[in-house]
Design goal:
Layout (H helix, E strand, L loop, with lengths): L21 H5 L6 E6 L5 E2 L13 E6 L2 E10 L11 E8 L6 E6 L12 E9 L2 E8 L8
Antiparallel strand pairs: 1-2, 1-3, 4-5, 4-7, 5-6, 7-8
Length: 146
């Protein structure tokens, strides 16, 4: 898959890479969102850890589609850092592979006033040295009016 890369727009505190989390944070270089999956019970697991929380089985990184929906979000209007211009969106995205597979992230390329819970999104990656931070953008669909 061709990486969908965007330019970093804000400074980030980057993770310290280790053997457990490295695939998640570096998979974006190849355009892949890599999530651990249990080889025994097939449960997807995030954040990266040493063993399956459900059955204790071995975990292996596997590429997911990189699509999901916004579970919840907040729009930050306060400027906490001089280089980070508000507003910006902090969200929890549920990946399509499993109904409880949730990632904390930012929503980019969107008007915060146009976002809604349940909105389809897709992954993009912000390169920061060796780390490729997964962020999400809305997939253009029209929201049904109730």
């Amino acid at each position: 898959m061709e990486p969908r890369i965007i330019n970093p727009t804000a400074p980030r505190t980057l993770p310290e890479l280790n053997d457990v989390n490295r695939p998640f944070w570096t998979g974006g270089a190849e355009g892949q969102l890599l999530i651990q999956r249990c080889s025994a019970c097939r449960l997807w697991v995030h954040p990266p850890t040493n063993a399956c929380q459900h059955c204790g089985g071995d975990l292996r990184e596997q590429a997911v589609l990189g699509t999901g929906t916004i579970f919840t979000f907040t729009v930050n209007h306060q400027q906490y850092h001089p280089d980070v211009q508000p507003p910006y969106v902090i969200a929890i995205v549920v990946l399509d592979e499993q109904e409880d597979l949730r990632l904390p992230t930012n929503i980019v390329n969107a008007d915060p006033g146009e976002l809604w819970c349940g909105q389809p999104v897709r992954v993009l990656f912000e390169p920061n040295g060796e780390v490729y931070v997964p962020v999400f953008e809305p997939v253009m669909v029209t929201r049904a009016r109730l």
